[in-house]
Amino acid sequence: MSLSVCSSPVFSPRPSSLFCNNKASPHQTLTLSHSHLHPPVSSPTAASPTSPFFLRLLKPPVKLVFGSDSGPGDCDRHLLKRKRPTRLDIPVAPVGVAAPISVNAETLRGESGEVEREGDGFSVYCKRGKREAMEDRFSATTNLERDPKQAIFGVYDGHGGSRASEFAAENLCNNILREIGSEGNESEIEEAVKRGYLATDSEFLKEKDVKGGSCCVTALIKDGNLVVSSAGDCRAVLSVGGLAEALTSDHRPSREDERNRIERSGGYVDTFNSVWRIQGSLAVSRGIGDAHLKRWVISEPETKILHINPQHEFLILASDGLWEKVGNQEAVDIARSFCMGTDQNQKLLLACKKLVDLSVSRGSFDDISVMLIPLCRFI
Q1: pLDDT confidence band for 273 (50 / 70 / 90)
Q2: What CATH number does the domain containing 120 carry?
Q3: Which of 28, 220, 234, 338 has fewest C-beta within 10 Å?
């Protein structure tokens, strides 16, 4: 089973599947309403056809067709005489693609702007900042190739709108998985991830009337290895026996190597109110999108690969709305106090909420997304 969830509290307007199969055979899916998340009263109910929350389960491989003719036999003919439910939409799932669940950005205007999810091997909590619409997104796909020890996760922080972060959440991890294939050594894996990021950026820039961009951080768990990549200032922090280890380095024009790269390409970096910006505009130097600055804002990620061992307790993926107010070690200390006991799944979500609330209490006005991934299950 694989789970792919688009980012944050707000997602694309159309209903999408939550579960899908990454096997090569084209399975069909059955659309059902999903009641795990409870939208406010003013939003469409979870059972409504217009509700953004939908659950799609793989169609059973037995001869059972919902809302259509059954097989031959008196029993079947008798059943067909009964009043049947309305025929359900049963689209064919794309081969090898994890389709994310989506929430319409419009539905959260004037409301709490929060989403929480406890998935298979992760928990995530997202909260909208002071903007009218949420620009963060996230995705998660577990049980890759029907292996519970393989998964891929991502957090995406959009700017200039949500189109780029939404596109990245829907496509980046799938592009990485396509490129990874059977790649074995670290250099091959790193190059495959890079191709996945570059392909996603190229595809987004071909979209009609593209605007804005998105920072991205992804974590692929495969064959006992943790492959963490980032472009922008979303961050991945690992708890190693309770000690925080940053697996990514923020891509900002204040970094000397990034500033030198930009200047060698004919751009300039200046500072205003203590914030370094490219061409006096953008405060991050890598990411998906940003067509008007593409010469300097590259989508090439930096990647770190390590083999998971028992000292690797959990991974935090979060947008910069957290890291601007909460340090790496402080985040690990808070999360660890929730994550190391019993009933871990419930406490993971509480830890995510605690970190978000702490950042807000310290004055963050930004969108904040925090994902926690316990690593013991992947050893």
Answers
A1: confident
A2: 3.60.40.10
A3: 28
